[in-house]
Known about the structure:
Layout: H1 14-24, E1 37-38, H2 40-47, H3 51-59, E2 66-68, E3 71-75, H4 76-83
Amino acid sequence: MSIEGNTPIWQLTVDQFKDLIQSILPMPKPEKEDDPYFNSKEAKVYLKVSISTLNRWTKENYLKSEKFGGVRRYRKSECDKVLN
């Protein structure tokens, strides 16, 4: 799907807008293939904690996270550090 350079943003379809955002803010690849990113829901299930605990740990820097396009992501390796 291509987007012409002079197309106003309000005329983009949802898919075109998603493509545009992903081209601007690509999701970085983990350094290792076995170190995937979890979103908040996946991280809370993996860690077996509530979402409020996950948020508190993030705020207190007990669990490191990264933000990509406004979405918080947790590396599996960081979650494993908390478990050990």
